[in-house]
Specification:
155 residues; mainly alpha; two-stranded parallel ribbon; globular
Amino acid sequence: AEAELEADIDRSFAFFNGDRAHMPTGLKPRDATLWPAADVESPPLMAAIPQSAQDYYIKLFKKTGFRPSLNWYRNMANIPTQAPWLDGAKILPPSKFLAGENDPVLGFVPGAFDNMEDSFADLHGKVLIPDTDHWVVEQQPALVAREIISFVSAV
């Protein structure tokens, strides 16, 4: 994945932040690449991401590459042995969890959303925001603001 992501960082971010209505759909074969073939046009930028933000992300990742970000995911399975003091630990401050209903990250740890109460000492709710993926603040700013105000008013 790293080599493909870094081979064309502009194209990678075009698909990360592209308008989902213009994305290829359907399951891919196991040996498929991350992005469609080079002759498939990149999707337009989603309305929630300004071009200035897209340019900023691209500039940063051209400096750092994807390795630092990917290493977190590559090492997730090692957390229990590398940080055993976290076993059974809970997030202590009052919290509310917001996620886009279509966020692929929710699938990284199966059951994590359903069992989130196990990870928080004072969870004041969890919300799946409709018609949203990973970019909840950018895609649904008014709804996110209402959820934050509601949460802060309650604690």
